[in-house]
Amino acid sequence: MKWYEISIKTTEEAEDAISNILYELGANGVVIEDNEIVTRPNLWDYIDENQFTKKDYAKVCAYFPESSNILELTHTIEERLKEIAKYIDIGEAKITVSEVDEKDWAEEWKKYYKPVEIGNIAIVPSWQDYKAEGNKTIVRLDPGMAFGTGTHESTALCLEAIQEYVKPGMDVLDVGTGSGILAIAAKKFLAKRVLAVDIDEVAVKVAEENARLNGVEIEIKKNDLVEGIEEKFDVVIANIVADIIIKLSKDINRVLKEDGIFISSGIIRDRLEDVLKSFEKNSLEIVEVKKLGTWCLVVSKKTV
What we know:
Order of helices and strands: EHEHEHEHEEEHEHEHEEHEHEE
CATH architecture of the largest domain: 3-Layer(aba) Sandwich
CATH superfamily of the largest domain: Vaccinia Virus protein VP39
Strand order of the largest sheet: 10-9-8-11-12-14-13
Number of strands: 14
Structural class: alpha/beta
């Protein structure tokens, strides 16, 4: 299958806002390349930084099916960029369109990833050999066209929180599962039941493949956040973006058991206060806030 790759040259300040726009317009995958890999190697030592060269700009690449109306899509992106340019510096914002084969895309990105250990979890690319030391829990992963490889600060924060809050026998819901990395980790830490949902069909397929790769049984289905979910869970995880977490906070108590824990990440520092206010408004008590780079994780619990 072929995809349209839409690449936007921008600033690091604008990369998250632009990523959100591209996802809203139907992107099946977004890749961000910026200097965090070079300037903060302590956070990115699981990326092969030799594959990157230092730049004075950021690049956001999104992948759309070849069935997309690329002229209309590009025009819409241009208009949306003009809107956000009123509030933040988006730099040159040059848009480049090219065609890419899905297989070639996946193979190209394999060279950037190597195993990473986060606490007692080792995230290992499916194509690499790896021997864990001690009692490390291994999660093998092939990200495909879905977000979530363990290389992003927000995902790393979630993996740390899973090790702290997910206990054997618990029921866990992973909202916006992406590659399935967090759902798989929860199951490997002996959660009794794990339900993983994502609105994107590609993500659902990738998560299913990764679950099989790790030999774990996880319920994975296409779903819009927690809409239609009637069960209650001990832990709900959402590694998404601030706006969606704020929206989700209105419904999260409905799917949490008494004293249930909500692990939310993907929150840029500038939006942390907005998220905290929405939690207070919706009867979620803050347990802890953790920060890594420009990203934040909030752990809260049900109070009503």
